[in-house]
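WARN no homologs supplied; continuing
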Amino acid sequence: MTGEVIAFGERLADQEPDHLAIAGARAAAVAVKEHRNFRLLELRGDAISEILLVECECDRVFSKNKAGICYVEPLALRFFHDTAVMPEVRALRADFPVLLHENQPKPGEPKWLCVYHEPWSQLRRTWTPQKFLARIQWWLEGSADGTLHPAEQLPEQLYFESPLSIVLPREFDQLASDKDFALELEPRSPEEGRKWVAVAKFKPLNQYLNTGNRHYALLTLTLGAVVHAPPELSPGTLGEAHDRLNDRGAPIAEKLFGEMQRLVMGAGLVHSMGQKTLLILTIPVTNPAGGEPRIERRGFVIDASMGQLGVMAGVLDRDQKSGKYVVALQLGGGLELKSAWRNATLIQVEVREPFTEERARLYSGVADPGPDGILAGVGALGSAIVDLWLREGWGQWRYVDPDLLLPHNLARHRGYEHQVGVAKVDAMRQLEGSIYSSRNIRPGFQASANDFGNTELLDALRSAKLIVDATTTIDVPRDLAMRDDMPRTVSAFITPSGNDSVMLLEDSARRMRLDVLEAQYYRFVLNASWGETHLKGHKGNLWVGAGCRDTSFVISGELIQLHSALLARQIRLRSMESAPCIQVWRSNPETGDVSTTAFGASSPIFVDMEGMELVWNEGLRTKMRAMRKQGLPHETGGVLLGHFDLMNSRVYVVDALPAPVDSMKSSAEFARGVEGLASKVDESLARTANIVGYVGEWHSHPKGVEADPSGKDIRLLVHLALMLRQDGLPALMLIVGESSEQWVVGAVRG
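OK structure emitted
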């Protein structure tokens, strides 16, 4: 150990550790006596603390290390009567080096080692004096061998944090050098608070001329890189700031006043009453151990206008005729500065970057900027989904919804009371504007997404990269699916109980569209054990208006939040893949458990049925051929389940039921029975919210016989057509033969 030792505190008259008043100090004294590398020298104290003077030996501190740490260091371990204050470690050697991870002491006090980075409120729950001593040794040894601040750790900041913060405007980089604009600071925090935040906004300078209103000229400088060092107290004057940065190889004066002359050159600078100057420095801070530099933006409010500051430095003059500040004529080639500028007072402010889409993605871990998309339906689910995407910076959205925001919507919608009566699309645009204040937000469409007669809406749909259907309707996704000029579309909805949610996503080539995926989704609902309750269980309707249709489902907003988060994330992730997707999430509202099942989509098969298109798929085809094979050598059959969409002239065959147990089967004929059939058809309707029901019959032909209809088949078809005539629907028959299938349709006309 070398060098003079600094006295810290007053020597206690009673040197017995047992008589210390602070429990932490007593326990630490015991730990020091038991530790082979620490030696207790003396007990000291002051009005607020008790201090243990110790010597610490570190076996891993080698002589002549670059940091200047000694093998034996005298230290002061300081404990406070206020147990909410973290214990301190002070280096008592007067020539103890200035190192990284030191706190700023008061003038004349010993250097203050920053041995912990965790907050004391958290650390004290596991703190022991034994761990404290080990941490001190770790700090000394890490400082000595250069491992305390490794290359992968970001460099230290230049100055200790200021309680004052300024949030930069979104267009900062574009307008920072425009002398026709001034900054206005809008305080967002009470002045009496411990911290103060103001939001900066650019406004034309002529709004402030000769008014005396407080505003700020802006000077921005990018300095050369500096090597990180322990944080310092903020400089109090512009001269002090220059000297400190000059010592680290990044002087500011010449750049500052050179930039000022550039801004004033030509038309001059109009004198503006009440103006202050905001200086923002951009400084790369490097770690000598390597790694990426940290780009630090540091702000200072200078108590002078730009013109006044230029006159103080001798680089500007006030023109008596025009009243403007102009560039001062200087002899010689260099920039000669007067010294008065050095006394300009500074107030350090933290510079906060504005919340932009890029930063939203950075904070959210989202790499892809997302599509230029259409969100159809901004009710409870749609508004919750897009709120998440906006805050993640994913996608640029135009909103489509015909409805107004009404009072009952506030239970689950992202809107607020002051927006009641506003179109939902405008409420969402206002939400977007409240997150990104200067973002160019395109108008929405107060219309249904399938209003293809609206040419402006149709053009927007066509030009989008992705359409997200959150309308919770049947007509919008089906109508979008029928058009070849639409982009890829995904449909998302929550079931009536609020417990389950569904995502249907077209493939990127749109070979499997939403109407096809919807039909296949129903088949999974019909055959899954969870399908029995999937679309049931809503807790009733509430009448919210005078009309019989003015009703609202009773669903907890908590369930909306749960499923909107699941759907928002999965739509974002799955839309970056090319495959189609049918996925269902099921939640247990009592326990919070969520399970999910994804289903493989089968290629659709389209059959022209004389003015109506029949749609089924390869998965159902495989199932029916398996039922034929299982029934051989006899014929077998059953009923077909599906649904009609007469607006789009399509019938979707969703599933096929096997033969009832009372059916007559032989190698020559098949007569379908009826036992249990009605209940199964009723169950199909119940499981699919009255969408999927009986649409026709199917049967197989025996081995070696193809799918051509026989006379009996034709007579059966006529019978079915007469039976379905009462509903105005055609009768369908599917024959499964040896190697092929044939669809036959029958309808009564006239």
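The domain at 605-746 is CATH 3.40.140.10 (Cytidine Deaminase; domain 2).
OK
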